Amino acid sequence: MSEHQIEVFFDGDCPLCTREIATLRRLDRAGRIGFVDLAAADFDAAALEVDYGALMDRIHGRLPDGSWVEGVEVFRRLYAAVGLGWLVAPTRLPGISHALDWAYRTFAKHRLRLTGRCQDSACATPRAGDTETLSMGAAR
Prior knowledge:
Elements: E1 6-10, H1 15-27, E2 33-37, H2 45-48, H3 52-57, E3 60-62, E4 68-70, H4 72-81, H5 85-88, H6 94-114, E5 118-119, E6 122-127, E7 130-135
Parallel strand pairs: 1-2
Antiparallel strand pairs: 1-3, 3-4, 5-6, 6-7
């Protein structure tokens, strides 16, 4: 792990995901976030001792102590790292927190279809030397 407050693992083939990451890169003037593209040819999940499919299921972040966070909590930490912590506090309120968790889980489950990466009833997450195909109902 590096000197970053959080290292984010994102799907670089997802247009919506890359737009969000581009915004965070612009806001991260202090270099507090490490960005890792799961779609990069040189990305190796095995080197992290993490399953590639699990990383593709939902967004993941790794903290300086080596622990992992997933889903909405990653976004909370990313926005706090770029100085937008004031936006984070309301997302922890019970009703809002549950709604955001549900919305993100729903998006993550259907993001391949929503971003045009499904044909017929299968979705693919292509990688160099890897052609993992997922059913439309898969939780990726």
